[in-house]
From TrEMBL:
Subcellular location: Cell membrane
Domain of life (superkingdom): Bacteria
GO cellular component: plasma membrane
Entry-linked Pfam families: ABC_tran
Membrane topology: Peripheral membrane protein
Keyword Cell membrane: yes
MF-aspect GO terms: ATP binding; ATP hydrolysis activity
UniProt KW Translocase keyword: yes
Residue span, ABC transporter domain: 11-246, 263-509
Cross-referenced SMART domains: AAA
Name of the protein: Simple sugar transport system ATP-binding protein
Protein keywords: ATP-binding, Cell membrane, Membrane, Nucleotide-binding, Repeat, Sugar transport, Translocase, Transport
Length: 516
């Protein structure tokens, strides 16, 4: 398995084993990364990829194995040790302080102090130079809480580059980015490698691996499956290595049977938190039963605010929302759920889960008050446990302790599956799904897309909000494109090209006013 001399590998993780109780997240895994390569790490949700990288970054201590840096064994007790050794990591779920500015977040832990005072001038200069060099266009004085997830991703990358790290770990870096941002990130990654950095790239997206990676190591259920040369291996072969079976990349849909209007949005207005403009500017549309209606657009064009308004997560500044002809504009979130609205939110940590609750508790967040889960005012945890076990099996949710696992400790993809299981099992009338396959592997994506198509075929309305052009084109029956808070196109996938969609999304083309 070894090639060349000892220093041929900048990083060697030999026979790493990491356990949580009786659960082996990493079972005798070996990973060898060459200097100056982009090395992809591929595996299903819960395969142990993030755990392995957390061991390399010093967040976890392994029960077995050794780590070598440039041929010499090293001990990494914590992230500070990792940074001192030149290892940086962009985590799948960002580690940013929301009430800090971009500048403060980047220098945190690496501050310059003179005579007891914090000196930011040099840091600001270096950060702006890095931002310019990699075309990140960040505002150093913006607060983390006010910037998009795509911009937060850039801040995390700048934080790593600010520390002058040579070995860069990207854990699902494209999960929250738009197609355009992904393309830019790929260029940045190639640029970094040309400058002598080495990159470990965790992703589920086989297109991205083919686009930038030199080699790829595949993990399955915590075990090492193999390392392959990306140029010589097909996507189909990689996906089969990852999930242990053949995976279909085509979303199969039967003929559409349109029914009545299930969701109607009339003249919706949502003001921006950061500017005086309308984030959603007098938007109207209808979604019918038996339809997957997709809202497409570049991140930050009002899609998030639109969903907040429809689902009740933020108050409207104008307009009305109707479901099955009934006005639900002012209803509580619980009442909207009772009326038949399901919501798969954009941010699973902030809006989808209570991270310190168990998996089984999270699976009944919308239904714990129902008669089946209580007796004389007391919650029946035995009933909840049985129900959770059924959903875990049905949706293949993997975690170290099953139903009683803490949500915080689960992989991002399995957290997402838990939310989807909870929302779809309620037999909703309208499914609002925002980035539903973000962070999922190809096997899980195939499964979730089938679930959305099944909802549509059962006569439900699905409002899909997606930044992924492949998903937009393959899953949707109809596409609305948002640009600067307005709907600028109402198109059908078979009648529009990806290039045309890109023009609508960039604001270079418009086919409708603000009516759909």
């Amino acid at each position: 398995m070894r090639e060349g001399t000892k220093v041929d590998y900048v990083i060697e993780m030999n026979h790493i084993t990491k356990q949580f109780g009786d659960f082996k997240a990493n079972d005798d895994i070996t990973l060898q990364v060459k200097k100056g390569e982009i090395h992809a790490l591929l595996g299903e949700n819960g395969a142990g990829k993030s755990t392995l990288m957390s061991v390399l970054f010093g967040l976890y201590q392994p029960e077995g194995g050794q780590i070598k840096l440039n041929g010499k064994e090293v001990k990494i007790n914590n992230p500070n040790d990792a940074n001192d050794l030149g290892i940086g990591m962009v985590h799948q779920h960002f580690k940013l302080v929301h009430n800090f500015t971009v500048l403060e977040s980047i220098v945190l832990g690496r501050e310059t102090i003179r005579h007891g005072f914090l000196k930011m001038d040099e840091a600001r200069k270096k950060i702006m130079e890095l931002s310019e060099r990699y075309k990140f266009k960040i505002d150093p004085d913006a607060y983390i809480s006010d910037i998009t997830v795509g911009m937060q991703q850039r801040v995390e990358i700048l934080k790593m580059l600010y520390c002058d790290n040579d070995i860069l770990i990207f854990d699902e870096p494209t999960a929250v980015l738009t197609p355009q941002e992904i393309e830019e990130l790929m260029k940045v990654m190639k640029q970094l490698v040309e400058e002598g950095k080495s990159i470990i790239f965790i992703t589920h997206k086989l297109n991205e691996i083919k686009a930038v990676a030199n080699r790829c190591t595949v993990l399955r259920k915590g075990r090492y499956i193999g390392t392959i040369d990306v140029a010589e291996t097909s996507k189909e072969a990689m996906s089969e290595m990852m999930v242990g079976r053949k995976v279909s990349f085509i979303v199969e849909k039967g003929r559409q049977k349109l029914g009545d209007v299930a969701l109607e949005v009339k003249d919706l207005v949502m003001k921006s938190k950061t500017s005086g403009k309308n984030a959603v500017n007098h938007v109207s549309f209808q979604a019918r039963k038996g339809e997957i209606l997709c809202i497409a657009g570049i991140d930050g064009n009002g899609q998030s605010e639109l969903v907040y308004g429809i689902t009740g997560m933020a108050p409207l500044d104008g307009g009305q929302v109707f479901m099955n002809g009934k006005e639900i504009t002012q209803e509580s979130i619980r009442q909207k759920c009772k009326d038949g609205m399901a919501h798969i939110p954009e941010d699973r940590h902030k809006d989808g889960l209570v991270l310190d609750f168990t998996l089984q508790e999270n699976l009944v967040l919308q239904t714990y008050y129902e008669k089946r889960f209580q007796s004389h005012g007391f919650i029946r945890f035995d009933k909840i446990h049985t129900y959770a076990e059924e959903l875990i099996k049905q949706f293949d949710i993997r975690s170290s302790q099953g139903a009683v696992s803490q949500a915080r400790g689960m992989s991002g993809g399995n957290q997402q599956k838990a939310i989807i299981a909870r929302e779809l099992d309620r037999n909703p009338e309208v499914v609002v799904a925002v980035q539903p396959v973000r962070g999922l592997d190809v096997g899980a994506i195939e499964y979730i897309h089938k679930q959305l198509v099944r909802q549509r075929d059962e006569g439900k309305a699905v409002l899909l909000v997606s930044l992924e052009l492949d998903e937009v084109m393959n899953v949707s029956d109809r596409i609305l494109v948002m640009y600067e808070g307005e709907i600028v196109a109402d198109v059908v996938p078979g009648e529009v090209t990806v290039e045309e969609l890109g023009l609508y999304m960039a604001g270079a083309k418009r086919s409708v006013g603000n009516e759909a």
